[in-house]
């Protein structure tokens, strides 16, 4: 039973270690992709150790205790790995990418002279975004516009919105 408790304690210690210094050692406890993260390993070890200890205390059967510990470890480890994977893959949909802005509408906030740069403001993915803008003709501040082309990461070509 002591062996199970030590394995469980190692799992908890690994989890605490990765939470406290995980950013400093970014990637050290990661192996085999996002599903097999340090959190998944810590969850597996903790559940295996403490689940096996509980089963052994109840039954005094080592084979049954190892089996229950493995099942508990696999369930908790897989759950922790899946949650870790979902957290790492999510959130990108709200980032503004200039390449996705063609066709977006907005307003001129700094007049665009003919052949020069001005500024436009648009709302993209819920973010108010200010970009440098060029136009075929001069556009005054407050003019509604549509983005027709991307010139660079911070500059677009616009035309008056009709």
TrEMBL record:
Keyword Protein biosynthesis in record: no
Single GO molecular function: peptidase activity
Record Gene3D superfamilies: Nucleic acid-binding proteins
Keywords recorded for this protein, A-Z: Hydrolase, Membrane, Protease, Transmembrane, Transmembrane helix
Positions of transmembrane segments: 38-56, 63-85, 136-158
PROSITE patterns in the record: CNMP_BINDING_2
GO biological process, one term: proteolysis
Protein name: Membrane protein implicated in regulation of membrane protease activity
Protein species of origin: Nocardioides daedukensis
